[in-house]
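Duplicate of #3305? Posting structure anyway:
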């Protein structure tokens, strides 16, 4: 039994490092020291006979073998979660545990939550509003049944079910010179003040490539992690931004004009579920309610 316990700790450490991206983050998640995580990883690598992570310049990146091994662990840790009581509540008593990023919550989901609860008297729901990183971690740890996100999530252990699809637009202050155009092209942004997203945001690399290919070099005024902040800075007249219009711009945004942007940059707003695990009945009902009550808008279409 002691040997099995040690092996489980090694696998927990692998999973935590893949999820958090650092040994420090893994240690914090597991409630142990960083040295204990490093020791468990070394023991696991010795056991499997190969390196599972590449260590360069203070960073640690999983190898393809580590990612494959982590994928095989999903059913093991799902079973452990059940044994520890994650799913022992009776179906009719268990609440829907929902997690949403701030922009989707404030500008779309909260009103749908209210409608869902009114349509299903007696239903219990727990809603948390967190950034995408916390959303993914919570789904991976099975602390939530369902998430909603427009982010480009590429993590093993979660399943994305696309719900809306949209295409990039250029948002600009009222009266900006580019408002004279019916459609903004990448070359039009050369020398133009822009509000951009941080490099860790998935679409930043895509927009950089599009602009580089067009030979356009915008003047970067500010960088931010959230669409709402970008739009507020645009409204203050600091520049233009390339942005996912759903749902923030679906009903218009005071002080801002929008033009299509001539680039194949697409977004998916998706339901986020634990991989290899069927959604709960309440989660299925809520997903269908969201699909049924999403009104038509000029910037997005149903994904299915």
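Output from current build:
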């Amino acid at each position: 039994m002691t040997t099995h316990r040690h092996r489980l700790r090694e696998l927990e450490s692998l999973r935590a490092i893949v999820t958090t991206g650092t040994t420090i983050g893994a240690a914090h998640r597991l409630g142990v020291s960083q040295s204990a995580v490093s020791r468990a990883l070394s023991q696991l690598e010795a056991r499997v006979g190969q390196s599972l992570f590449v260590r360069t310049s203070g960073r640690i990146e999983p190898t393809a073998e580590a990612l494959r091994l982590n994928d095989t662990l999903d059913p093991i840790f799902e079973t452990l979660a059940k044994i520890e009581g994650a799913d022992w509540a009776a179906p009719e008593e268990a609440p829907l545990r929902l997690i949403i990023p701030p922009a989707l919550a404030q500008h779309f989901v909260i009103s749908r939550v209210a409608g869902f609860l009114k349509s299903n008297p007696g239903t219990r729901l727990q809603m948390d509003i967190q950034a995408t990183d916390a959303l993914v971690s919570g789904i991976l740890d099975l602390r939530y049944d369902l998430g909603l996100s427009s982010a480009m999530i590429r993590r093993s252990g979660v399943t994305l079910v696309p719900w809306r699809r949209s295409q990039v637009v250029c948002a600009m202050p009222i009266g900006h010179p580019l408002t004279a155009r019916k459609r903004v092209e990448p070359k039009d942004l050369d020398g133009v003040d822009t509000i951009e997203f941080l490099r860790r945001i998935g679409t930043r690399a895509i927009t950089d490539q599009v602009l580089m290919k067009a030979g356009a070099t915008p003047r970067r005024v500010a960088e931010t992690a959230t669409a709402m902040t970008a739009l507020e800075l645009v409204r203050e007249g600091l520049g233009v931004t390339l942005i996912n219009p759903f749902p923030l711009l679906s009903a218009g945004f005071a002080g801002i004009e929008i033009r299509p942007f001539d680039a194949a940059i697409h977004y998916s707003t998706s339901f986020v579920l634990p991989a290899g695990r069927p959604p709960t009945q309440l989660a299925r009902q809520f997903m269908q309610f969201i699909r049924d009550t999403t009104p038509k808008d000029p910037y997005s279409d149903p994904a299915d």
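Confirmed duplicate; merging threads. Residues 68 and 288 are 32 Å apart (CA to CA). The longest helix spans residues 64-83.
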